[in-house]
Design brief:
single chain; 6-stranded antiparallel β-sheet; about 50% helix
Length: about 190
């Protein structure tokens, strides 16, 4: 029976990943990608606190924390210095990090998260052109809430998110190049007239 339930969840998860891929393919503005992916994350990890850490500068030592709309906790958004944090570890390693029990975690933000009632967390980085630009962060009130299947599904969502953000950046650059070319043609036409 447990195997049947696990297989049904995996089928649901894969359908949700496919739906997120379709929605992310429509993203034209990079900042919309997190807004578009949130409902899919909420379907998959409904009881979790969902946030993102975004590196505005990939060489920076801090990330901007974004509490995704609809998350249960509404703590203020702000910047997080990455050194010694679970988010920083995921960003610097480029790998998912799971903390099974925040009350015994050595990470700097663990105590603050535990005070919010969270007991475990999973942080998955997303990349654009091979560079980590942020993470999706899940928190749960249960100890060891996230397993290998959760990690695999979140990894797929983050691959899609990074791809959508890359495509939106390329679209933005192409639009900017088009506008510059149009202006150059207008200037040339005025000069030749």
């Amino acid at each position: 029976a447990a195997q049947l339930v696990e297989n049904q969840w995996m089928q649901f998860a894969l359908q949700t990943v496919a739906a997120s891929a379709a929605d992310l393919a429509q993203v034209e503005v990079e900042s919309d990608a997190l807004r578009v992916v949130w409902p899919h994350l909420a379907k998959l990890f409904g009881g979790a606190r969902i946030s993102a850490a975004v590196l505005d500068d990939p060489d920076a030592c801090e990330a901007r924390i974004v509490i995704l709309t609809g998350a249960r906790h509404k703590e203020p958004m702000g910047n997080l210095a990455l050194k010694g944090t679970v988010v920083g570890t995921a960003i610097f390693s480029g790998r998912a990090v799971c903390v099974e029990d925040l009350t015994t975690s050595p990470y700097r933000e663990a105590e603050t998260l535990a005070q919010l009632g969270l007991r475990s967390t999973m942080v998955q980085p997303f990349e654009i052109d091979g560079r980590v630009f942020g993470t999706i962060n899940l928190g749960s009130t249960e100890v060891a809430a996230f397993g290998p299947a959760d990690t695999a599904i979140l990894r797929q969502i983050c691959v899609l998110l990074g791809g959508a953000m890359r495509a939106a950046r390329m679209l933005s650059r192409a639009e900017q190049s088009r506008r510059l070319a149009e202006e150059a043609l207008k200037t040339k036409a005025r000069f030749l007239a």
